[in-house]
Write the structure tokens for this entry.
Amino acid sequence: MGQGVSHEELQLAARNHGMPLEALRFDVTPVGLHYLLTHYDIPEVDAGSWRLEVDGLVEQSLSLSLDDLRARPSVETAVTLECAGNGRALLDPHVVSQPWLLEAVGTARWQGVPLASILEEAGVRDGAAEVLFTGLDRGVEGGEEQSYARSLSLEEALRGEVLLAYAVNGSDLPPQHGFPLRLVVPGWYGMTSVKWLARVTVLDTPFDGYQMQQAYRLRHEEGDEGEPLSRMQVRSLMVPPGIPEFLSRSRVVEAGACVVRGRAWSGEAEVTQVELSTDGGATWADAALEDVSLGTWAWRGWSCSWRATAGEHELCCRASDAAGNVQPLEPVWNVGGYANNAVQRVPVTVTA
């Protein structure tokens, strides 16, 4: 990596946290280990007076309490969420922002009401193009004072799996994960799943707010208009084998039989292959994929046997999906440091 991490980036890193990679061993990530990114401050919310307002280009505006939402038919879906900036700190030249390595991911069981059912209840009028989601968290970004807000096309918003979630892993949302209500959009990077949701507005024109037009766009040089980020790129991560050296986190493994395990996911299509390399990517061996037990929108487990021999090794894992996407061996730099799904590289010292 290039220049060091700034004081401002350390402030961000202290507020946000990633999932320790050893937690990849859990099918469902415990809430306290799930990655967390909070753009502004965690708002103080009184659940008793809170309402979800549904308005805009609808036949009937709605004002729903938490009890109103809980009284409706609910679903629970296991969803892998990943920050679009996961892997940013591994890019060179350095990109100034939340300095994620590879831990900005987690899989949880989200419970709530399908968004489509609420939009159907409100009655979307002809001419609708997008649905805007506005949270209670406020701050200044890009010189603009704003509430965190993002939009989806009407087609995406009406996907049956998009949730208005009020519970995670069987409990009420904790404050840091969006209490009392958040959006969960399976398959998309986490910035889309607006927390502390307060308003859903049906629009006849695309939303031009900061989080859509300035942030979360893939730009290869300053001044580019860029492409908006949407679905998660295919990625695999391994549970770091052996034990860590404290400061460097490099791994120490005893020689002999070793099973390397991990998880793989894609927002584009089902993961169809994971490969493991123990020589820095020169040669690859197929890993065994676990059944898709958690459902379409959650990561998939994999494992691969390795006969570890004494010496220095670099382990890499690489996933492919049914749409033909394959993780690149090297990262592709961009202005925001987004969507870096280059293969994970783990240095390992094998002791005799």
In short: The chain is about 10% helix and 35% strand. The chain has two domains: 7-228, 235-351.
